[in-house]
């Protein structure tokens, strides 16, 4: 393990989860999981336990994949909402013009 990697892991594990009590429980739970995985990875590296390290790496990769799936889903939902809003704005702009014309006549 690189010295800088070891220093990073120790500092990150010592810091604990980055969210406060004000953060929502889902984000706090995710931060706690990340902190536990980093701690397990650090311990496996310090003990030179390649099997444990590989298991933790697999868990980290799974966490990243799951998070990426959530991000992709949220992006898709956002795109759909943006399209719906644009369609509503286009449809309502014509209606607003009709109201302006009626107000003049």
From TrEMBL:
Keywords: Coiled coil. Residues 64-91 form a coiled coil. It comes from Leptomonas seymouri. This is Uncharacterized protein.
């Amino acid at each position: 393990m690189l010295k800088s990697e070891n220093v990073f892991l120790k500092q990150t594990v010592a810091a604990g989860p980055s969210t406060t009590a004000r953060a929502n429980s889902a984000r706090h739970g995710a931060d706690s999981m990340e902190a536990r995985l980093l701690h397990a990875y650090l311990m496996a590296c310090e003990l030179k336990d390649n099997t444990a390290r590989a298991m933790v790496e697999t868990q980290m990769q799974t966490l990243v994949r799951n998070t990426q799936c959530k991000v992709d889903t949220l992006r898709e939902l956002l795109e759909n909402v943006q399209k719906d809003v644009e369609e509503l704005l286009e449809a309502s702009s014509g209606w607003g013009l009709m109201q302006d014309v009626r107000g003049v006549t």
